[in-house]
Amino acid sequence: MLREIMDVLDFLDDARNSAVEFAAMLPDGPHTVEITPFDSDLGHTDFIKILFPGKNGKSSGGDAPTTGIIGSNGGLRLPWEYPGLSSDADGCVVGLACALGLARKHHRNQQLQGDVLISTHICQSAHPAPHDPYPFVVSPLPSSEKHPRLVDERMDAILTPETCKSNKMASHLGFAVTPPVREGFILRPHDTILHAVEMVTGKAPVVFPVTMQDVTPYELGVHHICGMLLPSIFSTAPVIGVPLLTASQTHPSATNTQQPMVLEAATRFCLEVATGFGNGDYHFHHQSDFDGMLKSFGAMRGWQRLEKIG
After folding, report:
1. Domain ranges, residue 111
2. 243 near 175, Cβ under 8 Å?
């Protein structure tokens, strides 16, 4: 998948390119593309969703589960004297590389069993926002409006690649996985997901620590490591974050920080999980854990509600 990563990096490095131009990059195939532009006083972004039908996918009447891959990011660059792609672009890069890879696989008659729905947004001009220890790169609409546009009810489980380099929670050059989050519950990782990390990287898996704060809306004002688990607020599907990491802290808005081999490995991981999940071999969480927590404590999504803001 290194070719796909390099192609996407080169594509996004041209600030004139957006969702329409990316859709034109994809080889002809059975996939469908939805593009929704958004404009506000803070700027412009293009939301893009690409559905790749599976042999036994729900879009064609089958029953194989659908994998969602959300390339989470605030924006690709900031309008200042450093004009290149920011570190924050990583999630978008992985999401689009997954799409380009799947399109090329379909062109080679390699079709997965389940549908894969890739969602991201392409914001070529973001703005900074205060955050400890380094400023966030922020899109022209708040999280409470952005993430519902990224999430899709067709997704039975969600992977969320996103840069997460400006912290000391995991000093590691590579990607990690978070515990799965479903409907407010932070659950234990499933062995099949950890095994997928091992197979893709050839190394022991790194599980990124998350807290209750990370699965609450940004607008509540509590500290978040990053936004990779925010889709869980707007979906009943289990969500696993795929943080892109470095061994030392990296400013989210810093340029020339992309690590192609890390991005490539994360892309292969997302596609490996999509393959296994559609086949019924991989599981995002232990269903018995979720059922047991639900039985013992009742629904936990109430404390996540946006109505609590203010």
Report:
1. 2-308
2. yes
pLDDT digits (tens, 9 = 90+) for 63-92: 999 999 999 999 999 888 888 999 999 999
Residue 284's Cβ-count burial label (10 Å; 0-12, 13-18, 19+) is: buried
Domain count, the chain: 1
Residue closest to 224 by CA, chosen among 193, 189, 259, 252: 252
Question: Torsions phi, psi of 38, nearest 5?
Answer: -135, 135
Confirm if 299 and 184 have CB atoms less than 8 A apart.
yes
d(CA 150, CA 4): 22
Residue with tokens 């899109």: 139
What CATH number has the domain bearing residue 188?
3.40.630
Cis check: omega of the bond before 243, within 30 degrees of 0: no
Tell me what the mean pLDDT of segment 52-72 comes to: 97
Are 284 and 119 a contacting pair, CB within 8 Å?
A: no
Give the strand pairing for 239-245 and 157-163.
parallel
> Model's pTM, two decimal places?
0.95
Q: Of the candidates 1, 41, 40, 39, which has an alpha carbon nearest to the alpha carbon of residue 18?
A: 39
Token couple for 80 = 């200042």
Whether 302 shows a pLDDT value over 80: the answer reads no
As a whole number of angstroms, the distance between CA 261 and CA 205 comes to 16
Contact assessment for residue 166 and residue 134, using Cβ atoms and an 8 Å cutoff: yes
CB atoms closer than 10 angstroms to residue 240: 27
